[in-house]
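Supplementary Note 3. Input sequence used for the single-chain structure prediction.
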Amino acid sequence: MSEERNASGSHSKASPPSGSPAKASPTSPPVKTPNLSSEMRAVVLTRYRVVERFDERVIIAEDARNISLHVRQGMVVKSEDRHNFPSQVVFLDGAHNGPPFLDNERRQYSLDHHEGCVRPFTLSSCEQAAVMLLKGLPVTEGDW
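The predicted structure, written as discrete structure tokens, is reproduced below.
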């Protein structure tokens, strides 16, 4: 999933409206794949690409090009500033300054297992994302 995607290097999406095609950046550094087998490294290097969208570098997967991962180190969005971000955004692990939330009307979500959570009972962010996908999050509709 993509989202405003966040402070700890997770997803952030504050781009202009969708529709502009992604273009490969000839200056993009190679994807670092430490401690991976040669087979897994080949999968990572062929499945994911760093592209330029709206003057920003994002990561996309070849099989889900409508989902982009925006990494903005140190970015933290306050609840009152969420309206500045587009619909279909998922803030991950600290990108939103507050506890996890679900806004189905705007399709904005915060998946976090740090802020405002009961640690023994809160799923990790990736597990929260998996549950949302299994429950029918419409990631095939529009750009995320």
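The longest strand covers residues 48-53. Strands lie at 23-24, 48-53, 56-61, 64-69, 89-92, 101-103, 108-111.
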